[in-house]
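Hello again, I could really use a second opinion on something today. I've been puzzling over a protein and I'd love to understand its fold better. I'm sending you its amino acid sequence along with the C-alpha cells. It would help a lot if you went through both lines with me. I've dropped the whole record in just underneath, so have a look.
***
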Amino acid sequence: MSIAPEMTVAPGEKITVSPKPAPARSQHRIVKALVVVAVAFLLLELLFRTQGNFLSKDISHLKSFDHLAASLMQHEPNEQSVLFLGNSLTRYGVNPELFTDEIKKQTGLQVHPGKVNPDNTALADWYYAYRHFFSRENRKPDLMIIGFEGGHLRDAPSRHLDRLAYFYCDLNDWEAVQKYDARTFEERLYFSSCSLSAALANRDRIQRRILDVIIPQYREGMDQMNERLTQKTAPAASTVSYQRLDDLLTQAEHDGVRVFLAAMPVPEAYTFDKELLDCCQKHAVPLLDCQSVPGIQLEMFFDGLHMDEAASELYTKYLAETIRPYLNSPPERQFVLQN
C-alpha cells in the first residue's frame, strides 16, 4: 500500500485544488443525448402538426372548430342556426338531426345545427371557443344551447392551459387568460410556450397513448374522472362565482345570440347555485332543467356518466320539447323552467 507524502502548509496559506476536467467522452455523451432529445422533440412537433387529426379524435375536433363555425353560418335564409356548446356529455347526449326534426315537427321552424364539444372541458374552455371562433369572426349563431352538469359553469381556471394556448386563444385573449386562467408567472410562461408548440400543447396525449398500452381501459376511466373533477373540485359554496359566465352572456347579448342553459341528465342529481340563478335572471337566460327525462334509466349511462344512443334519443326529444315554448316568444324574465 502506497502512502501519499505529507504536505506541509504554512499557517494562513491557502491550498487551491484544481478540479479535474471532465473526460472528453462524457462531454460527447451529453451532447449526443441533447441532440437525441432535440431530434425527438422536433419529430413529435412535426407529427402533431401534420398528423394530429389521425392521432386523436379530440385533436381532430379541436382543429375543426373554424370549419364548424363557418359551416354553421351556411344556412338558408329561412333557417335558424343553433350551436350546441359543451363537452362529451353533449357529444354523446345530443342528436342534432333528431333535434332539427323535432323542432320542425313541433313548431314548424327550420333549424341548422352544429356542435362544438371538446372532451373534458367546462365553461373555462367554452368561453374562449365562442369568443374566438364565433363572436370575433362574426359567425354568430341565432341560438346557443350550452349543455352542462353540476359545477361546469362555475368560475374556475381551465385545466387545459396547453389546449387553450394552441387551439383556442390568440393575443386578443391575453387579458382574459391572465384574469381567469394563467395567474402566476409559471402558468403564463407555460401558456406562451404551448401557444408556439404543438408537441408541448399535446404532451398529455402522448402520456395517454403510453398509458393506454400499459393500463387497460385507462382512457375511459380518466375521461370519467376528469368530468367528475370539474364538479367535485369546484370552489366551496361560500366562494362560488359566475363572473366568466356573466362575461360570456354579456358578449352573447351584444352579438344578438339567444342563449339557453340546459342542465343535462347524469346518474347523480345536482342542484343550482343561487349565484347561477341570479346570473340567469340578470341576462334573461332560460335555464332548462332536463335532469329527469322520462324513460332514461341508470343502465343507459354506458360508462357511468355518458348517455347511450337510446338515452340520447330520449334526451334530444325532451330538450326540443322543453325549449319549444321559448322559440316563438321574446326573452322572458322567467329563467328556470320547472318540469
